[in-house]
């Protein structure tokens, strides 16, 4: 199922993934996860593309590595990522795009733990929104829709009234399963098998239009 993006369509709120969607953290994440994967004897080249967009604990659990405590390993990886924010920057136009939104009409829904989200947003010079949803807020991560349903609820809206911005397949599936429309951000270059969804590289050519009702639309 896909939808043709209608630039005149209005949304109650925008829900943004973080990594790869409003900021670039690929270099940092792949440095940390690459070292971890190598230490555990994984094929790093094959592993790195599949770890983006999911909670660290979910990524590790899916591997079913013998003798590995997923919770402990995920916590150690988070600490390493918090220490390594070299190259973490906002995507082109993201800061102005977010600044143009009413504070009660957008939030971030990320698979990152809260401390890591705070660190990366600070490094990228982007604001921490009200109602942010992080890894600790859900029991099941993306592609489960729980996170986006919670993000919309925190803003006081239904996901059916929201536009989700995502960059990886797990996140796109989560947004769709939640009942939202989805805009794919391609700047990070992540591959996915989903086709037919509207996409933009970044926000440099996007402008927010705010209706008298407070509803949002995008002009390109």
What can you tell me about this protein's structure?
With 220 residues, this protein is of the alpha/beta class. It contains eight helices and nine strands. It has helices spanning 26-39, 44-51, 56-63, 70-83, 94-99, 114-124, 146-155, 169-177; strands spanning 13-16, 23-24, 89-90, 106-108, 162-166, 181-185, 199-200, 207-210, 216-219. Helix 8 links the parallel strand 5 (162-166) and strand 6 (181-185). The chain is globular.
Descriptive key words:
single chain, 220 residues, alpha/beta, 5-stranded parallel sheet, two-stranded antiparallel ribbon, 8 helices, globular
Explain the layout of strands and helices.
Layout: E1 13-16, E2 23-24, H1 26-39, H2 44-51, H3 56-63, H4 70-83, E3 89-90, H5 94-99, E4 106-108, H6 114-124, H7 146-155, E5 162-166, H8 169-177, E6 181-185, E7 199-200, E8 207-210, E9 216-219
Parallel strand pairs: 1-4, 1-5, 5-6, 6-7
Antiparallel strand pairs: 2-3, 8-9
Concise overview:
With 220 residues, the chain is α/β, with parallel strands linked by helices.
Q: Provide the spatial order of strands within the biggest beta sheet.
A: 4-1-5-6-7
Number of strands: 9
| Strand percent estimate | 5-15%
Query: On the 0-100 scale, what is the average pLDDT?
Result: 93
Helix and strand pattern: EEHHHHEHEHHEHEEEE
Shape: globular
């Amino acid at each position: 199922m896909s939808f043709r993006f209608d630039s005149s369509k209005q949304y109650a709120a925008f829900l943004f993934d973080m990594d790869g969607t409003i900021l670039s953290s690929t270099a940092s994440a792949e440095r940390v996860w690459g070292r971890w994967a190598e230490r555990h004897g994984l094929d790093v080249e094959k592993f790195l593309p599949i770890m983006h967009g999911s909670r660290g604990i979910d990524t590790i659990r899916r591997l079913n590595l013998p003798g590995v405590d997923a919770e402990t390993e995920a916590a150690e990886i988070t600490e390493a990522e918090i220490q390594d924010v070299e190259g973490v920057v906002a995507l082109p136009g993201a800061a102005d795009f977010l600044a143009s939104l009413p504070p009660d009409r957008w939030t971030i829904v990320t698979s990152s733990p809260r401390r890591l989200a705070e660190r990366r947003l600070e490094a990228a010079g982007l604001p921490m929104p009200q109602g942010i949803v992080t890894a600790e807020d859900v029991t099941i991560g993306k592609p489960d829709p729980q996170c986006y349903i919670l993000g919309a609820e925190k803003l006081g809206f239904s996901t059916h009234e929201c536009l989700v911005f995502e960059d990886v397949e797990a996140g796109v599936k989560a947004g769709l399963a939640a009942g939202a429309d989805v805009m794919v951000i391609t700047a990070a270059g992540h591959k996915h098998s989903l086709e037919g969804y509207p996409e933009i590289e970044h926000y440099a050519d996007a402008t927010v239009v705010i209706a008298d009702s407070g509803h949002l639309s995008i002009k390109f």
